[in-house]
Amino acid sequence: MIGVPLLDGELVHGDVAVSTGVQLQSHEQIGVETVARDESSSISMSSRQELVGRVAAGLAHDLNGPIGVMLGFTQLAREKLEADDSATSSVVEYLKMIESAGENARSLARDMWDFANSSAGKVGEFDLTELLETTGRLVAPTLRVASIEPPADGELASRMMTGDRARWAEALVGLMIEAPTALPGGGSLTWGLKQGVGGKTVTIVFVASPNDAETSVITPVPAQDWEFQDESVAIINGLGGTIGPLSGLDDDKRGIEVSVPTDSSRS
User: Fold this and answer.
1) How far apart are CA 206 and CA 114, in angstroms?
2) Secondary structure of residue 56 in the 3-state scheme
3) Which residues of 172-203 are buried (b: 16+ CB within 10 A; e: fewer)?
4) How many CB atoms lie within 10 A of CB 88?
5) Cβ neighbour number for residue 116 with a 10 Å cutoff
6) β-pair type (148-149, 160-164)
7) Whether 196 contacts 203, CB under 8 Å
C-alpha cells in the first residue's frame, strides 16, 4: 500500500501511522529556497559576465599588437622575396617575428576562452601558480593601459591545490583588475606565495609599488588603498579563504594578501 506523507514526518499505512524521522518542507518553504538560489545564481552570473567583458576589452586592445606585427612582417617578407632572392636571412627573421606574435595572440585567445567558459562548482586539483600566471596574462592589458607593469611569469614555484579552480580564477581576476585603484599614477604589481602554518593554506601576496622617483619622468604618486568589488570578497570567503591588507610595507606602497586553503574539499 502506498503511504501518504504528512507534514509531521509520518506515513499512513492503512490505519497505522509510522514515524519516518524525516521533516518534510511545505511547498511555500521549497519555493522560497528555490527563489533564493535562483537569485544568488543570477547575481553571480551577472557579476561574472561583467568581469568577462572588462577582461575582453583589455585583451582586444592587446591583440591588435600581435596581429599588426604578423601583418607587417608578412608584407616585409613578401617584398624582400619579390625584390631580392638573396634576402633569405632577413625573411627568416621576419618569419620568426610572425610566429612569435601568432603564438602570443593564440595564447591570449585561449586564456580568454578558458576563463569565459570554465564551469564553477567543480572541485579538483589545480596548480595555483599556473592559475596566477593565467590570471596575470588576462589582466595584463588592462594594467598596461593604466601604466602598470604586470607581474612576470616563471618566477614562482608550482603549488598544487584542491578546490574550485573556476571560482578562484574569477576571484583573482576580480582583485587584480582593480589594481589601478591602488596605483593611480602607474607603477608595478608584483606577487608572491608563502606557505601557511601547518601547510593547510597558501597565501598569495600582491604588492602595488609606484614608479621610482629617480627613474620616472613624472612625479610618482604614492600607492593608495586597494579597492575591489564585494563579489570578489564573497567568492574568497565562500571558498574558505580570507583577504586582507598587507602590513609591513613602505609608506608609498600598498598590498593585499589572500589565504587559499590547500584542500577546500574537506571543508
Assistant:
1) 24
2) helix
3) bbbbbbbbbbbbebbbbbbbebeeeeeeebbb
4) 10
5) 14
6) unpaired
7) yes
Q: What is the pLDDT of residue 91?
A: 77
Query: Measured between alpha carbons, how far is 175 from 170 in angstroms, rounded to an integer?
Result: 9
**Averaged pLDDT, groups of 10, the chain, 267 residues long:** 38 38 44 44 59 66 71 77 70 80 79 80 94 93 93 92 94 94 95 92 96 81 92 93 94 95 80
CB 152 within 8 A of CB 176: no
User: Using CA atoms, how far apart are residues 243 and 232, in angstroms rounded to an integer?
Assistant: 10
Predicted structure pTM score? 0.69
Provide the residue type at 261 as one letter.
P
Of 252, 222, 236, give the one whose Cα is nearest residue 244.
Answer: 236
Among residues 166, 164, 169, the alpha carbon closest in space to that of 123 is found at 164
pLDDT at residue number 64: 66
Residue written as cell 606565495? 193
3-state secondary structure of 99: helix
Any alpha helices (H) in 3-127, and if so which ranges?
A: 27-83, 88-117
Contact residues for 267 (Cβ-Cβ < 8 A; gap 6+): 240, 261
Longest dimension (CA), the chain: 102
Counting beta carbons within 10 angstroms of the beta carbon of residue 267, is it exposed (0 to 12), middle (13 to 18) or buried (19 or more)? exposed
